[in-house]
Fold this sequence. Notes:
Blueprint lengths: L1 E5 L17 E6 L4 E5 L2 E6 L5 E5 L7 E5 L16 E8 L2 E8 L7 E8 L8 E9 L19 E4 L5 E7 L3 E6 L16 E4 L4 E3 L5 E2 L2 E2 L14 E3 L1 E2 L20 E4 L5 E12 L2 E10 L10 E4 L1
Amino acid sequence: MALTLASFAGPNPTPSLENFAPARGTDLRIHDPNIIKVGNTYYSYSVGEHLVIHQAPGLDGPWKQTDCVLDKDSIIPKGDRKAPWAPTTIEVKGTFYCYYAVSQAGCRDSAIGVATSTSPGPGSWIDRGAIIHSGTGIGSDIYPMDVSNAIDPSVFITTDGRGYLTFGSYWSGIWQIPLSKDLVSIDNGSLAEAHHLAYEPQVILPVRQIQENPLCGDPSGGHPVEGGYNIRVGRSVSPRGPFVDKQGRDLVDGGGEIVYGSNRDVYAPGGQGVLTDGEVDILYYHYLNKTVGYEFWNYGLGDG
């Protein structure tokens, strides 16, 4: 089981770049990628107007934009409703759930919503609206929503069918709460069951018998020489934590083993996920190619 999170680079020293494999780049320009495989087709969901969908016959591409998840602005009345952030899509019993965030840069007035569909592609998605709010909105005055930021959602389904929503980044780090059985809402009392998992992350995925937690973090500005974002891992015997690195350091206390970082032409890999493809678990991420540029839309998809 794996939990991927977005976090600041932290105090741990970055391993030598010789320890990192070169990025296996693709033809897809993307930020905060989320990838699933249905049949023989790969689908990616990403930030952009109405949540952009691409599909391809393989991770290496060729990737083609097919349309969007939403056919209009999000029904959540806050943040950037036209271009929601950081979608994550799962499939449960024939229904696809696309969780997304609405917010604005540097703002805690955010919400996480969800759309559902019977197909992973465009055309049949229904926007179900908000699940949780921070800043303003229903439940935003209840702990931990009064200290956290409702962005960067990830949902993990346990073997017994229970769903957990992981969210957050800056403003107190990463939190996790149980979802209702319908996976599009939370029950009364769910916030009282919130667990603090780490300072700054994103997603839970099944990887054998343990939970692993890659972290990625963003510098507060500029492009530091040391490379900004990096991807880290922690593990737990429970999807609810605590997650620790191989030295036993809790991720809430700054732990996290760096598994991938800036190297060669690769700058600031992050926004990662793990795709189980047959017997292989594939780490994918966005990154900047130093030879291309450092603008937001220069981010591309890498895997390895």
